[in-house]
Specification:
The protein contains eleven helices and six strands. A six-stranded parallel β-sheet has the order 2-1-3-4-5-6, with helices on both faces. With 219 residues, it is of the alpha/beta class. The protein folds into two domains: 126 residues, 3-Layer(aba) Sandwich (Rossmann fold); 77 residues, Winged helix-like DNA-binding domain superfamily/Winged helix DNA-binding domain (Arc Repressor Mutant, subunit A, Orthogonal Bundle), CATH 1.10.10.10. Keywords: DNA-binding, Phosphoprotein, Transcription, Transcription regulation. One of its GO terms (molecular function) is DNA binding.
Length: 219
């Protein structure tokens, strides 16, 4: 089964360049192109893609608003942001819409391909150059207490909480985590609350981003 992709970008040259490269992947199917957020939302409804590769700065409707609407109307569709903006004022709002990841246009082609494949499986994707920055910014008092999250912070978590935390990096809901770990959904909710409390995080998005860094292989 091929991964169905909708490309969204208001720059024709960029759009065509990405389209050409992705069309070379045998497991990808480019189902459409949109030039602004409003057109993207409409095409998602018509085409039902698996992945929306979303630019942010566009006319009529920007990528953040479009991602929010897609998340509300078509929860099964995953939005992977692909933009030139690496600042917090763009990154945080984009991820808060429920986007599965945030990549920069300077990403190597092979990395983008793998990010799309991994996002399709439900794994959160962050561009290597911004992942550490995002974790730091989303962790309360990070600037005062540490530069990057440490694996030592996992010591307070139980083995089951570690399993739940790792499931969060895949974007799974409480129901999906319960099914995967063969436990009650109510138990998952309790574990998530405990994780947030022990790591001093405010929501599961922060926990997922925190875990992406902690569970990523050391270089």
């Amino acid at each position: 089964m091929k991964i169905r992709i909708l490309l969204v970008d208001d720059h024709q040259i960029v759009l065509k360049g990405i389209s050409f490269f992705l069309s070379m992947q045998t497991d990808f199917e480019l189902v459409g192109e949109a030039h602004n957020g409003q057109e993207a939302v409409e095409l998602v409804g018509e085409l039902q893609p698996d992945i929306v590769l979303m630019d942010l700065n566009m006319p009529i409707m920007d990528g953040i608003e479009a991602s929010k609407l897609i998340g509300e109307r078509y929860p099964g569709v995953k939005v992977l942001v692909l933009t030139s903006f690496s600042d917090r004022s763009h990154i945080v709002p984009a991820l808060q819409t429920g986007a599965i990841g945030y990549m920069l246009k300077e990403v190597e082609p092979d990395q983008l391909v793998e990010a799309i494949r991994s996002a399709y499986k439900g794994n959160i994707q962050l561009h290597p150059d911004i992942s550490n920055t995002i974790v730091m910014q989303l962790t309360p008092n990070a600037a005062e207490t540490k530069v990057l999250p440490s694996r030592q912070e996992l010591d307070a978590l139980t083995p089951r909480e570690l399993e739940v935390l790792e499931q969060l990096t895949k974007g799974h809901s409480n129901k999906e985590i319960a099914q995967s770990l063969v436990i009650a959904e109510k138990t998952v909710k309790t574990h998530v609350s405990s994780i947030l409390s022990k790591l001093s995080l405010s929501d599961r998005t922060q926990a997922a981003l925190f875990a992406v860094h902690l569970f990523q292989p050391s270089e």
